[in-house]
Specification:
Blueprint lengths: L2 E3 L6 E4 L5 E3 L2 H50 L1
Antiparallel strand pairs: 1-2, 2-3
Length: 76
């Protein structure tokens, strides 16, 4: 495998046999992976929070229904 540096792109090379672009800059790759994991973690937390909010809304709605039922029963 023979690699030729890509002009103006440090750490980026072209494989002369396959013509593929190779990124040999592991720091950039590691940073990308960290950012991706961070985004996934934030997305998961957001989903969990949305699920909790949905559950709370359902519970509040049920409580309101029970209160209305109690009020109606008391006045009849």
């Amino acid at each position: 495998m023979s690699l030729i540096p890509v002009d103006g792109q440090p750490g980026i090379y072209r494989d002369t046999r396959t013509n593929a672009i190779i990124n040999k800059n592991t720091t950039d790759y590691d940073n990308y992976i960290k950012q991706k994991k961070s985004r996934e973690s934030k997305d998961l937390k957001m989903k969990e929070m949305q699920d909790q909010i949905d559950t709370l809304n359902t519970n509040v709605s049920e409580i309101k229904d029970l209160i209305w039922t109690l009020i109606k029963d008391k006045h009849t």
